[in-house]
Amino acid sequence: MAEWLVEEGIGETRALLVEGGRVLAARLRWPGEPVCGAVHAARLTRRFAGTRRGIATLDTGSEALIDHLPREATEGVAGKVRLTRAPIHERGRLKRAQARWLGEADPGNDPVEIEGEIVRRFPQGLWEDVWHAASAGAIAFAGGEILCAATPAMTVIDIDGELAPTALALAAVPAIAAALAWFESGGNIGIDFPTIEAKADRRAVDDALAAALDHWPHERTAMNGFGFVQIVARLEGPSLLHRFATSRTGMCARFALRQAERVEGAGVTLLTVHPAIKAKLRPEWLEDLRRRTGRAVRVETDPGLALEAPSAQVVPA
What CATH architecture does domain 39-103 belong to? Predict the structure, then answer.
């Protein structure tokens, strides 16, 4: 039976849905960031004329787009809101959180923490597979690979390979389903399949995609004559692709700390990283690493290392 496993890491909480040693889905949260389902005190700062929508300033100081405003809610009124989507950083801008106006009602928070069995470590290699796939925006399959990218308009998935168009499209479907769950994708998603001439073949790909995603709430168009399929699903916050697109050094810094936490032995933890990663390491994170491992920590830099390729080892004190 599939079960959620949770790692409470340094600077982030990670979760994997695992069944039979295989990852079905992944989630990632950073401490202190707004979470879908959370209830906040807020003040309505702007109401859009003729609508039930507006902008409110939350108790955190950030702004959220508000819907379901009652007629009597005027600018300046205080109340409570429930986040329906966390804010999402995009290149060059921050997409505001979305929230529903509750007024004075206080129904309590939805469960906002990642639920599952808390483990000290995931089984070897599982998180690394997900992390590196999201970092590269790619998942290989027999005969080709899918390439994924987060854009301001939508998440785009392209398919590349040397198989015949219909065979390539069908072979890509399991990788597409895996990517959507691994990367915690949602919102508008565009899939650019190879151009397939025969309607029957396009229908076969549609049927395969429907079967692969039958457990996942979404709406989907049929493949058009150019091989394009659009999916719309609930988006609750930044996907792994969004995080890598806008916070790559932050993602890599946390990954480096995870690597350092996993090495064993007596001595000093030597963590060697790209200079940009060292600049991102917070003192409290390094102190947490020292406390968790019981070893002193030394950080050195090597500009020849990729951001995604830290080196961690235990050396004599």
Answer: Beta Barrel (2.40)
